Recover the amino acids of this structure.
C-alpha cells in the first residue's frame, strides 16, 4: 500500500509541513507584541489546550485499531498498560517509550500474528 | 586593533555560552537520538533514504509532525490536509510562544532561529532555565536550540543509515509515536489534579472518531475540544490550577 509520491508532490508536502510548523511557532510573536497585553482567554487556552491536544494525539495514533475485528485492539491495550505502569514506576521516558514499543512489536510479530 | 579585540571577546563569550548550554541539553540528546533513529528507520521502511530524512529533520524540526508525516507520505497527495493537520497538532506551540514572549525579547537577529527551533523539548529547557551568571542570554538560548537541532538531525541520519544497512522486521515500530504520546499523557496526568482538559481531549476525539470515521475526524475533534474548553472554562479555571 505504498503509494509513492512524485518528487514535486513530496517537496510540496514537506513545504506544507514546514509552513504549518513555522506558522504556529511564529504567530504568537506576531500577534502579541511585547507592549500589548495578552487576552486572558488566550492565556487560559495556553494552559488547558496542551493537555487536551495530547489526548487528541493518543486517539489519533489509535485510529486504525478495530475493536470489532480480531485481535480487538488487544496488542495496543497491553502495550499501553505496560507503558503507563512502567512510567509510573521508573519515570524514565526512554525506558517507557523503548520498552513499550518493543512489547508492541513482539506482540504483533509473534503473538497476535 | 580595537575591532580585533571586540571579535575576540565575542568569540570567548560565545564559547562560554556553548559550554554553559551543553550540559543542560544532555537529556534532550538521548531523547532526540532515540526518537530520531526511530524516525530515520521508519522513513527507510517506506522507501525514503538518508537525504530526504535529513532534509525533513533539518527543515521541519518537529518530532510529532515528522512521525505523522510518515502516514501522509504513504497516502494520496493532499498538501492542504497536511498543512491543516500540522497546524492542529502544533497548536500547542502557539502557547509556547506566548510563554516565551518576554524571554526572547533581547535576542535580536537570533530571534527568528530561536522561534523556528522552539520544539517541546527546547521549550521545556528554555522556559524553566536562566543562563548562569555572566553568560550571554541570547547566545545561551541559541546554543541550547542549535544543539537540540543537531541531535535531532544526527539521530534521524543515523536511523536512515541503520534502516538501510540492517534488515529486521520493523512491523509495529510505528507504535513509538503512540508510546511517546502515552508517556506525555501519563506525565501530565501525574503533574496536575485537574484532569478535565485531558479527558476532553480523549473523549471528544474518540467520539468524533466513532461519528466521522478515521479519515475525517480530526478537524471536528479539534473544534469540539475548543468548544468544550471554552464552555467549561469556569469549571476548569475554578478548580485550582490547570
Amino acid at each position: 500500500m505504498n503509494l509513492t509520491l512524485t518528487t514535486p508532490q513530496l517537496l510540496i508536502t514537506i513545504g506544507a509541513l514546514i509552513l504549518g510548523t513555522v506558522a504556529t511557532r511564529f504567530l504568537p510573536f506576531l500577534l502579541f507584541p511585547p507592549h500589548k497585553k495578552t487576552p486572558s482567554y488566550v492565556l487560559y487556552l495556553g494552559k488547558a489546550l496542551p493537555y487536551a491536544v495530547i489526548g487528541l494525539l493518543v486517539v489519533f495514533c489509535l485510529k486504525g485499531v478495530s475493536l470489532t475485528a480480531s485481535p480487538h485492539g488487544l496488542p495496543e491495550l497491553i502495550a499501553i498498560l505496560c507503558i503507563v505502569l512502567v512510567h509510573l514506576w521508573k519515570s524514565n521516558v526512554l525506558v517507557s517509550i523503548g520498552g513499550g514499543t518493543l512489547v508492541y512489536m513482539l506482540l504483533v510479530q509473534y503473538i497476535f500474528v | 586593533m580595537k575591532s580585533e579585540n571586540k571579535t575576540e571577546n565575542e568569540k570567548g563569550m560565545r564559547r562560554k555560552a556553548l559550554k554553559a548550554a551543553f550540559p543542560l541539553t544532555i537529556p534532550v540528546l538521548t531523547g532526540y537520538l532515540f526518537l530520531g533513529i526511530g524516525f530515520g528507520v521508519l522513513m527507510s521502511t517506506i522507501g525514503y533514504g538518508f537525504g530526504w530524512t535529513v532534509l525533513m529533520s533539518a527543515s521541519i524540526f518537529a518530532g510529532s509532525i515528522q512521525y505523522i508525516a510518515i502516514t501522509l507520505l504513504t497516502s494520496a497527495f493532499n498538501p492542504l490536509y497536511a498543512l491543516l493537520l500540522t497546524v492542529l497538532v502544533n497548536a500547542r506551540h502557539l502557547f509556547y510562544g506566548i510563554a516565551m514572549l518576554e524571554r526572547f525579547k533581547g535576542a535580536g537577529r537570533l530571534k527568528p532561529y530561536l522561534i523556528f527551533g522552539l520544539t517541546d523539548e527546547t521549550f521545556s529547557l528554555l522556559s524553566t532555565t536562566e543562563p548562569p551568571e555572566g553568560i550571554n542570554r541570547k547566545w545561551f538560548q541559541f546554543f541550547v536550540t542549535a544543539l537540540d537541532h543537531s541531535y535531532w538531525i544526527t539521530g534521524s541520519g543515523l536511523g536512515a543509515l541503520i534502516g538501510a544497512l540492517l534488515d529486521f522486521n520493523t512491523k509495529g515500530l510505528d507504535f513509538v509515536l503512540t508510546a511517546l504520546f502515552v508517556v506525555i499523557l501519563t506525565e501530565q496526568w501525574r503533574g496536575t489534579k485537574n484532569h478535565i482538559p485531558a479527558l476532553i481531549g480523549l473523549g471528544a476525539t474518540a467520539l468524533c472518531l466513532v461519528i466521522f470515521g478515521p479519515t475525517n475526524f480530526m478537524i471536528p475533534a479539534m473544534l469540539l475540544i475548543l468548544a468544550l474548553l471554552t464552555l467549561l472554562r469556569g469549571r476548569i479555571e475554578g478548580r485550582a490550577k490547570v
About this structure: The longest helix of chain A spans residues 7-31. Chain A touches chain B through 73 residues (CB under 8 Å).
